[in-house]
Amino acid sequence: MTQPSNIQFGYRRHPDQARADGDAAHHAVVIVGAGPVGLSLAIDLAQRGQAVVLLDDADRIGEGSRAICFSKRSLEFWDRLGVGQRMVDKGVVWSVGRIFHGASQLYQFNLLPEQGHKRPAFINLQQFHAEAYLVDRVQELAAIDLRWRNKVTSLEQRNDHALLTVETPDGPYRLRANYVVACDGARSSLRQMVGAEFAGKMFEDQFLIADVRMTAEFPTERWFWFDPPFHAGRSALLHKQPDDIWRIDLQLHPDADPAVEKRPENVRPRIARMLGHEKFEFEWISLYKFQCRRMQRFLHGRVMFAGDAAHQVSPFGARGANSGLEDAENLAWKLDRVLRKVSPEALLESYHTERSAAADENIRESTRSTDFMAPVSRQEARLRKAVLSLARETEFGKRMINGGRLSVPSIYDSPLSTADTEVWRGGPRPGASMPDAPVAGRGGETTFLTEAFIKAGTRFTLLEFCNGAAVERPDGVGVIRIGGNDGLGDSAGLVGARYDAEPGTAYLLRPDGYVAARFRHPTRTALDVALARATGHN
Amino acid sequence: MALSTSSNFAKPDDAFRAVVEAHRGLSDAQSADLDAALVLILANHIGDLDVLREAIELAKRRMIEASQQQQQQQ
To answer: What's the complex ipTM?
Structure first.
């Protein structure tokens, strides 16, 4: 395995463990699970001034590549956490995908065809690298207390706190927390402890995922095959990762025997046929079936669920880890406000509303992809065959091919949004995430809107397009000003175009970079009302 | 009602005949392939999801009624 050398972490006894059961230490937030979601959430909360206890039952980063595709949205989130550049420097940047049928190409797509974004559509990066960089960042933040080999074994919900029992190499101890966030993965034990169901759809087809090491000159693109010559009748995927590692995904027959299929001597000939040579070594082989499901509610008393613990999708579309990271960015600012008592607890309900709808969308998209790859009836297979053959000569056929619809941020239909009352021809509507665009700093240097958002404090921020007199802002609201004497330059006109801006236009951005409200000519009253709604005061 | 169910062809027999003749000489499997492609081509030409859903609903209603009739006969 080519994992970083710092993946093993030591268990350290914490003074909390010496306390009597009746005198358990009380913390504001305990996060369970130090995967990408738990680590990112902890960092976001810590940067907002919250002290966080982060528990993980292991003492090492998980093996194998697992998630590899991280979206533009995730990279923008990680930029705010101070780790985005490191991820991009190590990752393989890509935006082009190709779909093949048999030996010939049917379709090519570009997920980010326009210029002027700080971050690419996607990077490919092994999950263990991402986790290692996040752990490094956690260790720079004194507010995060990361405890390895701390396994939560029981949970009791009290009126004003949750009581956890935590098993360690030194025996059990108890912790009290105002809020617990369960980021403990698809097999979440906290989900079982709250007694929540996790029902959904199981797919019968099996997929084999192998990471192989080889030097190859394939372009850094996502290649997907239906019925390739090297794997007749099934589908296949090839994707590049850092360190000369390639991800290969092969669809198997539903009745294939997992134990037999997983043996390297059986996997090797398949992959040799695909690559046309045998000069590769296995890094990791995994065989699995997919499930698409989510919890009915992401909030259970004082416990909130995020990432795979709350929802699972098939991997086609890179919607697993990315949607978990979107959960984290959505929850962090809300939990911070509730803990600081500047928003009512009801604000947390919007986490469930927004992210469960996003989970439904991700499940719908990834179920459609999986159904397209593995038609469940003869007529479904016929319809797919028709699409694949029509794609050779028609544009609409190409667009109907579904080899995975890749993760894009959801647009929230949210009680936090203030509905448009004016005429807009474009731009992100309330509930949508802020599009990036290049801007010029005062010294003429090129920077990006996403960077200006970080400089403005990653908080409620007014993005305003100058019109002489600026509107008076509510307390605690940051500002990004475009144009005018002291604003950022928009010489290419891309900010104006992407936000359908006119002089005086203003967008109220939430701390997670989503649009709360927008105005052609904001008044202080209108801003106050929109801000109150977006912070759960309505 | 967005789906038009009034008679749209000047010569309806010609339209019916065109579809029938497209299937002449085909095996059942080939016919099913042809229908699948034809449905997708026409659906895209219509380009309106509401109309498509109404059409599916109308088509499905035939099947439900047919199966009810069968049950009554038994």
So the answer is: 0.91
